[in-house]
Amino acid sequence: MTVERNYDLSAHNTFRMKVKCACFAEYGSVEELAGLDWDSLPRPLKHIGEGSNLLFTGDFPGTILHSAIRYVKYVDVGLDEVPVIAGAGVRWDDLVAELCGHGLWGAENLSHIPGEVGAAAVQNIGAYGVEIKDIISGVSCYDLVTRKSCKFTVDQCRYGYRESMFKEAGDRYVITSALLRLTRSPRPRLEYKGLSGVDASSPASIRNAVIDIRKSKLPEPSEIGSAGSFFKNPVISASDFVRVCNAATGVSVPHFVLDGGMIKVPAAWLIDQCGFKGEREGGAAVYEKQPLVIVNATGSATPDDVLELERRIVATVHERFGVSLSPEVEHLPK
Ligand code: EPU
Predict the structure, then answer these.
(1) How far is the CA of 261 from the centre of ligand 1 (A)?
(2) Which of 17, 51, 155, 325 could lock onto 56 through a cystine, CB 3.0 to 4.6 A?
(3) pLDDT tens-digit series, residues 20-61
(4) 254 lines ligand 1 (CB under 6 A)
(5) Complete DSSP assignment for 19-67
């Protein structure tokens, strides 16, 4: 267990913002988590994973909690379905690589996504037609209010598009492990247009294809700081969609009609149409190959650079299309 004061968070956020927290506490087991000297920890408390979906907007006045629970347990029930329990501190992509290496199906489309298991289950990460909720059976948690361990089924997690009960509950529940269901029999998911025609002979071959796509569109976290998609794809009404089409002046608007008639429009397209690709603000920039991503282009971007670029994008997209973009990346402090 590590508890440090006035701690530098540069290595704990993939945006690489140079910020500090009043206290940083890392634990290696549920027992260590429960045994923290809670009353001495500065408030507020905030649990993070790899910090790959976070923008630190300045120094954090409270305690950052981080899980180093890093075990992977295979429950061999001798059937087609293979339950796997993964500790919250396991790097998500290390787990996906391991599962694909064992020839287990289910997680391959979610390859090369930065982050750790606990945060992936809070955020309901998704890519290429799959969300983590599709392979989660349940999660184990530590309740910071009752100071007891508890479990939730996937239904109780109330997953939606990058949403879950854990986000609604504020920072009450700390996920300590997730129970995933993989299968031995093939179940390739190739609906996403970029995956049609790829070699689907094994989870590893799909993983390789997904990694190629991500590398061609998204910045490599090891090379350039970012937090992936900065905005959510907006879901709008049919009448708002007509307004977007009118504002698009002759260009057809990419869109997906959802159950119930609401329409999802790619935020990347709206931002692209407003001419933001490559746009700079101090050390921050809109990524050239995927304008949904804001990057720390110089390595020395400040939180204010990113916030100003965010403000300009939101204002311009709203003015041109009447659509309000909301950030996917969590801002801390809010
Ligand atoms: N587009 C443009 N210009 C561009 C790039 C894209 O107009 O320069 C438009 C195109 O119409 C394209 C559409 O945006 O068809 C969608 O682009 P893409 O398929 O790359 O996906 P996305 O909707 O922008 C979402 C997730 C990604 C995930 C991909 C693939 C969100 C907020 N983002 O992006 O997740 O990898 O789908 O499934 O839902 C993340 O959450 O950090 C993330 C990267």
Answers:
(1) 21
(2) 17
(3) 999 999 999 999 999 999 999 999 999 999 999 999 999 999
(4) yes
(5) -EEEEEEEESSHHHHHTS-GGGSPSSEEEESSSTTEEE-S-EEEEEEEE
pLDDT at 315 over 90: yes
User: Can you say how many angstroms the Cα of residue 49 is from the centroid of all Cα atoms in its chain?
Assistant: 10
Q: How far apart are the first and last CA of the chain?
A: 28
Q: Is the CB of 113 under 6 A from ligand 1?
A: no
Q: Which domains does the chain carry?
A: 2-67 (3.30.43.10), 72-217 (3.30.465.10), 225-332 (3.90.78.10)
Residues 92-115 have a mean pLDDT of 98
pLDDT in tens, 215-239: 999 999 899 999 999 999 999 999 9
What is the position in ligand 1's atom list of the atom closest to the CA of 227? 42
Integer Cα distance of 166 and 143 in angstroms: 11
**What average pLDDT score do residues 194-210 get?**
96
Among candidate residues 184, 174, 45, the one with its CA nearest the CA of residue 119: 174
